[in-house]
Amino acid sequence: MKLAKTFRLLNCLLLAGGLLAATSYAQTAQEKGLEIAKERKARDLGWGDSTAEITMILRNAQGQESERKMRTKTLEIDNDGDKGLTIFDQPRDVNGTAFLNFSHATVPDDQWLYLPALKRVKRISSRNKSGPFMGSEFSFEDMSSFELEKYEFTYLRDETMNNMDMFVLEQKPVDKYSGYTKQVVWIDKEHYRPHKIEFYDRKNSLLKTLAISEYKLYLDKFWRPLRAEMYNEQNGKSTELITHNFEFRTGLKDTDFNKNTLKRAR
Amino acid sequence: MKKALLALLPLSFYVSAEIEISGSAGVEQRYFLQDPLDERQDRSQISAFLQPEIYTDFNDGLDSILFSPFVRVDQHDDERTHADIRELLWLRVGDDWELRTGITKVFWGQTESVHLVDVINQTDSVEAIDGEDKLGQPMVNLSIIRDWGTTSFFLLPYFRERTFPGMDGRLRPGLTIDIDNPVYESSDEENNVDWAVRWQHSIGDWEVGLSYFDGTSREPDLVPVTQDEQTLLRPFYPQMRQTGVDILAVVDSWLFKFEGIHREVNGDDFVAAVGGFEYTLVGVMDSIYDIGWLMEYQYDERDELSPTPAQNDLMVGSRIVFNDVDGTEILIGYVQDLDEADSRSGFIEASSRISDNWKWRFDAWFFSGAEDQPFDPLYQIRRDDFAELTLEYYF
């Protein structure tokens, strides 16, 4: 009897220990999702600053095109979102308009717009970022920098796409003002670069699909896509975003991103 | 943007500077909805304008020169046919300072319906009734940029008179304005050296500005004088000292805005203020439209003596942004005097692109003044309701 009791107790202990081991070694889908996202972010730290020229081609469902041209300056900020300055060149009536953005992970971005005709710098509310950027299929939210704190991640599955092994991740925006209930992201296992993102609207139906391509390596470490095409699944419109002349570590400083530099941006 | 290469050949070395030419031009047709009060005025008025901008920089972009002349030709009004140098500016930029020397335009403030603290540039009032077009102001301006804000010092060596419509133009008082004979309080007249200082800073979700101006008031008193048995309104430009504060706060989708001034002028002093909010709804009813709601209360201690209609008035407005490829926007506003039911005005401003270079713009204004307030600026232009269509070309 005594022996049997001891045996049963031992059995229980073993079982408990086994359960414990199982929870500590087998990752949940959330943990795996966060780990992949962290690796994606970690591989993109330390680029410093960059400048680029961007062309946006807006297409409606009938295939009519309209072009936007702008130049961007971006500064990486430790432990916060990037600082960005965008100068618009085309269409011509917005020539000289400039946009200053201090992005943040958990609080709304700080944003200012410079209107050259009035020589006026206007602070703008960034709370609601679901609105279109320059009439395109990209929203202000889509244009902001990738920060871990903005989402809750879940690993969904592995998949092969474009002959590359991919992780498929779901990321749910934390901000209730986000235009999306969730995003599904395809990230390649080799370099942790996103190749495709599906955006689901507030009714949880597929709204847009972003295809990201033509990755190029800069400073032997940082991958940047030269082409991204956002296709609106609901209205058939699309916007192609083409980046030219990426340059890194151009010597931009924090003092190049303020209302004074915004006013004289060229 | 046309880029031309200009070869500059100083004595010993060769430098090539790139010159950028851009700008806009347009044709504007105004149509007045009522017959004029004065038979010299017309119901239809067409005009055209041109404003090129010529820019070059050198010294790795630390120095730049900007030249922007402006000219408008009007069908009827000789005073509205005018030219101005909007900018002729040399800008030199240091690590934490900027020096502007020449003619330029400066904007101060945060509110939408009136601009109380904005006193550096003279209003080019023949251009538009909203007072947002300004004449170029000669200045030396040094701005010091620090962590605790931007401090700007202004030395303004020359004064610009306000423009007024001529007798053939509309949107003017009934009496003739004696434009050619302005009177100044300063014995130096337009050569009085004015100065100003401003501090502006962003503190989290707040924008805060403080300003001080000492010099010739940009806002003239229109003094009735009798000359050759005719009563004229003679512009009198007094000296003034004005302290101003302007604040904006971002709270979620709300922008709260305030401007207040204290002005010492003509041996007296007064305060004026404007405050209100702008609330923006993004993606209204699952569309891509944004709708903004604006409300501002305007106060001026000068009350009925105020040369502006904004002395105890409420502005309500709505800004509709279509977020379409053509950048279509509509702004509708209505201003009601809270003392005089008949004193009110309203406007619609709409614009949209036709192509990469062409744009249309539609503006309409209506005015109503109280008969027992004959000097209310709105009463003077009560018959001047108009609609205006502008076709603009940007290059």
Please explain how this structure is put together.
The complex is a heterodimer of chains A (266) and B (395). With 266 residues, chain A is α+β, with helices and mostly antiparallel strands. Helices cover 18% and strands 44% of the residues of chain A. Chain A has helices spanning 2-25, 29-42, 140-143, 259-263, and strands at 49-59, 65-75, 83-90, 98-102, 110-115, 120-124, 151-161, 164-173, 182-188, 194-200, 206-218, 222-232, 238-248. In chain A, strands 6-5-4-3-2-1-13-12-11-10-9-8-7 form a 13-stranded antiparallel beta sheet. In chain A, 29% of the residues are buried. The model of chain A has no long low-confidence stretch (mean pLDDT 91). Chain B has an 18-stranded antiparallel β-barrel. In chain B, strands 9, 10, 13 and 14 form a 4-stranded mixed beta sheet that branches. Chain B has one helix at residues 377-380, and strands spanning 2-8, 15-32, 44-58, 63-74, 82-93, 97-104, 137-146, 149-156, 176-177, 183-184, 194-203, 206-216, 221-227, 230-237, 239-251, 254-265, 268-282, 290-300, 312-321, 329-337, 344-353, 358-368, 386-394. In chain B, strand 17 and strand 18 (290-300) form a beta hairpin. With 395 residues, chain B is mostly beta strands. Chain B has 1 helix and 23 strands. The A-B interface holds A 58, 60, 66-67, 89-96, 108, 110, 118-121, 123-132, 134-135, 179, 255, 258-260, 264, 266 and B 1, 22, 24, 55, 57, 61, 64, 91, 93, 95-96, 98, 105-107, 110, 132, 143, 145, 150, 200, 202, 205, 207, 248, 250, 252-255, 280-283, 288, 290, 323-327, 353, 356-357, 359, 392, 394-395.
